[in-house]
Amino acid sequence: MSEGIKDGAALPEAAAQSRASVLRSRAESYIALSRHDAAIADLTESIALVPDNARAWRLRGESHRVIERYEAALEDFDQALRLEPDSAYALGSRGQTYTAMGRLEDAMADFEHALTLSPDSLWILEAKADALVDLDRLDEALETHGKIIALNEELPYSWAARGDLYQRLHLYAEAIDDYTKALEVNPEYVRALSRRGEALRMIDRYEDALADLNRALELDPDNDRAYGSRGAVLSELGDNEAALSDLNKAVELDPEYIWAYRVRGEILQELDRHEEAVADFTRALHLEFGD
């Protein structure tokens, strides 16, 4: 981490510019390493040396955003945009900050402005789609996901993201098609395997679902959602003991996994283990509603 210099004002302008440039470059590597406090220290010194460099403000804002210092991030992005009003990067990042703060209309305004400047920016389109989902503007979110996929069909994440939205809309056949596309690009994409398994469960294709969830857990043995879904599938297939084992693992990995408590409670209820069922339902109610 940079310790700074004792008297930045004493540096000749050329030296100050040079030092600030190296600090910005080192900060970018710190950011890539997720060492955000170190990046912020370097960028703060860089800004003190050269206050009119928009990139430094932009980068510091991004580090602040990632570590959830949202007010500080907004101040940095605002300053970056004063210096460089047509920065799609700063607009997109400020939009992500607004989204995290729940200021969704402000976020949408920034995303729309950014996309007039950089209409094919995949990450800004993805951020816009997420905000549209949060606003419950699901048809527009689907349209945006379609644009993302049209720009690059070789990104498994994009197919899976649209699949998740289809699943939210209970359009399971469409979701399965998108997860399958993701897996054609990357056959070991755990998210797509796990989510396709869940979609298959929802249309009662339990054996197919089990195959996907088994594979997901082979690849990622600590995937709590895959354990939860597989537990539900095993219960439908009549193996309640194996189902309980998976659901136990799911809540061990994520003690706040509400759906797993509900499903486990239902299985325990079927087995006449009512005290344990009550405990699970009570836990689910507490986590979701604060009871």
UniProtKB/TrEMBL annotation:
<dbReference type="InterPro" id="IPR011990">
    <property type="entry name" value="TPR-like_helical_dom_sf"/>
</dbReference>
<keyword id="KW-0802">TPR repeat</keyword>
<dbReference type="Pfam" id="PF13371">
    <property type="entry name" value="TPR_9"/>
</dbReference>
<dbReference type="GO" id="GO:0046813">
    <property type="term" value="P:receptor-mediated virion attachment to host cell"/>
</dbReference>
<dbReference type="Pfam" id="PF13414">
    <property type="entry name" value="TPR_11"/>
</dbReference>
<keyword id="KW-0677">Repeat</keyword>
<dbReference type="InterPro" id="IPR050498">
    <property type="entry name" value="Ycf3"/>
</dbReference>
<dbReference type="InterPro" id="IPR019734">
    <property type="entry name" value="TPR_rpt"/>
</dbReference>
<dbReference type="GO" id="GO:0009279">
    <property type="term" value="C:cell outer membrane"/>
</dbReference>
<protein>
    <submittedName>
        <fullName>Tetratricopeptide repeat protein</fullName>
    </submittedName>
</protein>
<dbReference type="Pfam" id="PF13432">
    <property type="entry name" value="TPR_16"/>
</dbReference>
